[in-house]
């Protein structure tokens, strides 16, 4: 999976917990293919995301999830999660600086962070503050409006160059301009 990840996903999942909504799911996503999974609340979209991230207890799953023909149970969590990003309905932000929210492990240069903010149209907002990349952010995203809060995980995914991007109603709580952009 480390070399030239193609991001092809093939999964055959059977969730065996009593409350599971995913049963007998067979899904194949080809490299560079974009799909939408649509369903009412409780239909299993989040369960699928959790299975991809290996948040689901393996004993509850019968079957396999393969990425590039490799069973994800054979991949380290660190490697797996390095290649997957999620843009949730409610942006997850941490107390700290804007830069630490974008790059919590300091893997990227300031220039790369600025480029990610530019790509999501936040560069002007960040540069207009005297603290710039060190702009303090609370967990609630104080100092950011709803659209700006939602763009931070998008910038994070761009910065990571994630091979697999999961989007969970990312535009549900944003203004029309941000919705169009995302």
From TrEMBL:
Transmembrane segments: none annotated. Its main location: membrane. GO terms for cellular component: membrane. It is found in: Membrane. It comes from the Eukaryota. Residues 22-172 form the ABC transporter domain. GO terms for molecular function: ATP binding; ATP hydrolysis activity; ATPase-coupled transmembrane transporter activity. InterPro entries: ABC_transporter-like_ATP-bd, ABC_transporter_C-like, P-loop_NTPase. It is a multi-pass membrane protein. Keywords: ATP-binding, Nucleotide-binding. Belongs to the ABC transporter superfamily. ABCC family. Conjugate transporter (TC 3.A.1.208) subfamily. This is ABC transporter domain-containing protein. It comes from Rotaria socialis. The lineage of its organism: Eukaryota, Metazoa, Spiralia, Gnathifera, Rotifera.
């Amino acid at each position: 999976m480390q070399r030239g990840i193609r991001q092809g996903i093939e999964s055959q999942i059977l969730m065996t917990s009593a409350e599971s909504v995913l049963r007998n799911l067979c899904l194949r996503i080809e490299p560079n293919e974009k799909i939408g999974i649509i369903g009412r609340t409780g239909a299993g979209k989040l369960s699928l995301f959790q299975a991809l991230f290996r948040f689901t207890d393996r004993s509850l799953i019968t079957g396999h999830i393969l990425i590039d023909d490799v069973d994800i149970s054979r991949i380290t969590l660190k490697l797996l999660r390095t290649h997957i990003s999620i843009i949730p309905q409610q942006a997850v932000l941490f107390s700290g600086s804007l830069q630490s929210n974008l790059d919590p492990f300091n893997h990227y240069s300031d220039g790369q962070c600025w480029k990610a903010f530019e790509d999501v149209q936040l560069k002007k907002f960040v540069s207009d503050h005297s603290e710039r990349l060190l702009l303090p952010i609370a967990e609630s995203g104080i100092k950011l409006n709803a659209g700006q809060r939602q763009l931070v995980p998008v910038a994070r995914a761009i910065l990571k160059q994630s091979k697999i991007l999961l989007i969970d109603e990312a535009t549900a709580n944003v203004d029309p301009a941000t919705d169009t952009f995302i």
